[in-house]
Specification:
By secondary structure, this protein is of the alpha+beta class. It has a domain of 43 residues. The protein is elongated, with a radius of gyration of 37 Å. Strand 2 and strand 3 form a beta hairpin. Helices cover 28% and strands 18% of the residues. It is built from 2 helices and 3 strands. It has a 3-stranded antiparallel sheet, covered by helices on one side.
């Protein structure tokens, strides 16, 4: 009986010592309590140089920002590259189409006709 009581006492002592060691480790992160509505505060106002003022901005007073009217030449060359045209260059631009010429995959001369609108869709 004495041996059983000693084993129970050792088990209880081991259990209490592990609990005593783990409690400070669990509280190492800290505790924080906030009472707010969960939204972030507004950002601070940007710093402007008094001589220049704030940067220009598109707003209702000046109208909408300018939009792209037709097929941008850089975009037309990118489209030609995607279609496999090598050494592409813009041959002609009209109100309705953009013609890009270059060399095909096998070295033959080739041309690509794109619509002169923001989508630059292929016409031929």
């Amino acid at each position: 009986m004495k041996k059983t009581m000693a084993m129970v006492a050792m088990a209880a002592l081991t259990l209490l010592s592990t609990i005593a060691v783990e409690i400070p480790a669990a509280n190492a992160q800290g505790f924080e309590l906030r009472i707010d509505d969960g939204r972030r505060p507004p950002p601070p106002p940007p710093y402007y140089d008094d001589r220049r003022g704030p940067p220009p901005r598109w707003d209702d007073r000046r109208g909408p920002p300018p939009r792209m009217r037709g097929c941008n030449p850089d975009r037309a060359l990118d489209m030609a590259d995607r279609y496999g045209l090598r050494r592409a260059r813009i041959a002609d631009v009209s109100p309705r189409r953009v013609i890009v010429t270059g060399f095909g995959r096998r070295g033959e001369r080739s041309q690509l006709v794109l619509a002169n609108d923001p989508s630059c869709r292929r016409l031929n």
